[in-house]
Amino acid sequence: MPIPPRFRVCDLCEAMCGLEFQFAEDGRLAQIRGDAQDPFSRGHICPKGNALLDLEADPDRLRRPLRRRGADWEEIGWDEAFALAGERLGTVQQAHGADALAIYLGNPNVHHFGSAAYLPPLLRAARTRNLFSASSVDQWPHQLVAFLMYGHQFLVPIPDLDRTDFFLVLGANPVASNGSLLTAGGIARRLEALRRRGGKLVVIDPRRTETARVADEHHFIRPGADAWLLIGLLNELVRIGPPRLDRYGDRLRGLDDALAALAGFGLEEIHARAGISPEVVQRLAREFRAAPRACAYGRVGLSTQKFGSLCQWLLQLINLVAGRLDAEGGALPNEPAIPVTGPGTAAGHHGKWRSRVRGLPEFAGELPVAVLAEEIATPGPGQVRALLTVAGNPVLSTPDGRALECALGSLDFMVSVDIYLNETTRHADLILPPASALTQHHYDLIFSAFAVRRLARWNRPVLPLADGELGDWEILQKLGQALAAASGRPWQPLPPPEVLIPALVARGGSGVGKEELAGAKHGLDLGPLRPSLLGRLQTESGFIECAPPLLLEDLRRLAREAPAAPAGVELRLIGRRHVRSNNSWMHNAPRLTRGAPRHQLLMHPADLAARGLASEEEVEIRAADRRIVTTVQASDDVMPGVVCLPHGFGHARPGVRLRVASKVAGASYNDLTDPAALDVPSGNAALSGLAVEVRRAAAPGLAD
Ligand SMILES: Nc1nc2c(c(=O)[nH]1)N[C@H]1C(S)=C(S)[C@@H](COP(=O)(O)OP(=O)(O)OC[C@H]3O[C@@H](n4cnc5c(=O)[nH]c(N)nc54)[C@H](O)[C@@H]3O)O[C@H]1N2
Ligand SMILES: Nc1nc2c(c(=O)[nH]1)N[C@H]1C(S)=C(S)[C@@H](COP(=O)(O)OP(=O)(O)OC[C@H]3O[C@@H](n4cnc5c(=O)[nH]c(N)nc54)[C@H](O)[C@@H]3O)O[C@H]1N2
Ligand code: SF4
Ligand SMILES: [Mo]
After folding, report:
1. Phi, psi angle pair for 221, to nearest 5°
2. Using a 6 Å CB cutoff, which residues line ligand 2?
3. Tell me, what CATH number does 649's domain have?
4. Rounded CA gap, 336 and 340, in Å?
5. Pocket test for ligand 2, best of 574, 578, 599 (most atoms within 8 A of CB)
6. DSSP-assigned letters across all residues of 264-325
7. Does residue 326 lie within any of the structural domains?
8. How large is the greatest C-alpha to C-alpha distance in the chain, in angstroms?
């Protein structure tokens, strides 16, 4: 009997593509295709979606808990594993206080209902202020600006991609990343549609990216100089005509103060800083204002830089003064069927406590991950002595991975919930591997809130759970219970996902009924984005706060910045993403690593020549006293003075059990980054725009 296909959303990136899973007669998963009946993604699939087959079949994927025995590992049972975790983590907390346990949450947690919904009780049981996540090497500037201006960290306006006529993109490469804080399955097709309907796509990026290649216009910008450009655009918008504020009624506060604070920045200075001429700034402002519907958007290249929060604030103001904030075809917050804002959700707070060593403020209950290594390595009361990582690989993902690696080796105890023995988990004492996400019920709690349409979808398991495997939600519940027991506190379990998902949707007030949700095997499209921001503001004042003091203060830091060095003198390092790579953890998938290598440092031919280097040579990249060695490749897609390296490589480290990935060449970007380089208001790491030197690598044995 042929087995009918099953349908489910892909959880590997933010695009939420519907996939069709086909099975062989013996029940094995045989093929994966884009689901043409998915009303949102309409059949789109990328190479990573197909690589789910590799993930399922990966012999390196862990299936049972592993306990360290000296340099070796042994498989142990789940009960023993949870008892051990509870006892050892509990002992550390009893002896040294609750904060002696740190927790790091990685990116896949926001992609799985079993993590996103079940982590909060675990975190309450852990009671630690040393909570860290990938958010502080990613989108904290977005969240902080949403919190300061609109009163909730997740009240983030999303580009209305399908209805805009002018899309200004800075520091994002959605054609490779498939979109971020911009969930839109099949984004290349949607960008094509924008241009077909006469719209315009403008990309600002120090590299001529895959997105820049399909744009109407691309401009190079000096890394880290976007705040200057955005100030220029905003000033021009206001100069051309009065701000279009009708739709905001009396709900604005501080706009005049904000505009006054920006008025002193002149176009010539902006040209010198950003490398974009006054004529271009003026024209873009005119076109943005004149377009029937327009939207400005910036992502990782904007938020992981020195002035990330200023950039995100300026983008909000640009959309606002052009009358495009909370307007069709502009930028509007989604109204997900399971609300992430409003009553009972975590709006955020800033500076309620500070990190012990450097005194950096918390944001929304977390500390910047840039302080994790020093919190472990610096002795004294409150020192971190135990660590729990959940679906994270901070050794490759956060600043100064080498320092973090050293620190991890000094912990009293470390537990990792992860599917691989990798660069981070090799330092653990205990690894708890969850079953494949495909065996679990799933609802996109987070990305439904960042999608370009309103969607609801209950995804059923497409594969059976094997004997002896536990879903992520069960592992997190059992860990939480063990931590609660160790401190003698009560533990309240949550119901399983198949009960919790429909209950949360029913409670959400979207009007989607349980039957409708349960019956929609390709997902439900509930319609386009709608203006809703004004009714949802959660600021104390009830206004949109246009001039948050924290950001005005940072504006003074921008003004004090030393001018850019003349071209040819310095090199600035930026990152890149590739459609066949996924952060640090999918290089073990043969389907993705096949073909030409993708780890190289890209450098402009003029910069190569100036250093007497040739393409394909081994080079040493230095940033202060940190250095890595990799291959350089000539490319005139990067602007002169800029070099470009993807993060998430550098798997060849002792003890890593990733057979394919360890043979993938390349070094880790974050072995170069500096934990002191931050976007000051948020504490997000400034990974992009790092000053580096590049020279021919010393011959082996001659290294100095
Ligand atoms: N230089 C530089 N650094 C960066 C970035 C950059 O652009 N440049 N980008 C930053 C960004 S945007 C992000 S989001 C972070 C990501 O930072 P991290 O989240 O720390 O890193 P990932 O590479 O996503 O690692 C995911 C981990 O989850 C594990 N995993 C995969 N699937 C599952 C699962 O189903 N369950 C469990 N429990 N574990 C699983 C993987 O084995 C891996 O260990 O990196 C940041 N770091
Ligand atoms: N295939 C694939 N898809 C992914 C991921 C992946 O690793 N692989 N990761 C996922 C994750 S965790 C995230 S957060 C998203 C990220 O999604 P995006 O932000 O769209 O992805 P990036 O490719 O990092 O785009 C950042 C861009 O910023 C540019 N840039 C760097 N510095 C500057 C600067 O100073 N100014 C300007 N204007 N631009 C700058 C870079 O050249 C790059 O093109 O992608 C997600 N999707
Ligand atoms: S674009 Fe993202 S969601 Fe779609 S198939 Fe690829 S990895 Fe999965
Ligand atoms: Mo990310």
Report:
1. -140, 145
2. 13, 107, 138, 170-174, 176-178, 180, 204-207, 209, 221, 223-224, 226, 299-302, 305, 574-579, 581-583, 688-689
3. 2.40.40.20
4. 7
5. 574
6. T--HHHHHHHH---HHHHHHHHHHHHHSSSEEEEE-HHHHTSTTHHHHHHHHHHHHHHTT-B
7. yes
8. 74
Give a yes or no: residue 601 inside a domain. yes
Structure confidence by residue, pLDDT tens digits, 486-510: 999 999 999 999 999 999 999 999 9
549-560 helix and 308-321 helix, angle to the nearest 10 degrees? 110
The residue whose two tokens read 């045989």 is 30
In angstroms, the CA 263 to CA 259 distance is 6
**Alpha carbon of 327 to those of 341, 410, 510: distances in Å?**
19, 52, 21
Supply 240's token pair: 């051309």
Domain count, the chain: 2
3-class DSSP state of 487: coil
Asked whether the predicted pLDDT for residue 451 surpasses 80, the reply is yes
* The predicted structure's pLDDT at residue 564: 76
Compute the distance from residue 647 Cα to the ligand 2 centre, in Å: 10
List the residue whose alpha carbon is closest to atom 14 of ligand 1: 107
| pLDDT band at residue 223 under the 50/70/90 scheme | very high
SS (H, E, C) 497-551: HHHHHHHHHHHCCCCCCHHHHHHCCCCEEEEECCCCHHHHCCCCCCCEECCCHHH
- Compute the distance between CA of residue 178 and CA of residue 582 in angstroms, rounded to an integer: 11
Is there a contact between 247 and 326 (Cβ–Cβ < 8 Å)?
yes
Distance CA 244, CA 578 (A): 39
Q: Are 388 and 482 in contact (CB under 8 A)?
A: no
**637, part of any domain:** yes
Whether 405 is covered by a domain: the verdict is no
Indicate whether this model's pTM tops 0.90.
yes
CATH number of the domain at 180, please.
Answer: 3.40.228.10
Alpha carbons 103 and 74: distance in angstroms, whole number: 24
Tens digits of residue pLDDT in 570-587 = 899 999 999 999 999 999
Residue with tokens 């073990």: 588
Range of the domain at 311: 157-332
Final residue belonging to a domain, choices 332, 366, 398: 332
Of 299, 332, 365, the residue that ends a domain is 332
Amino acid code (one letter) for 513: G
172 CA from centroid of ligand 1 (Å): 18
Half-sphere exposure of 331 (CA within 13 A, CB side): 26
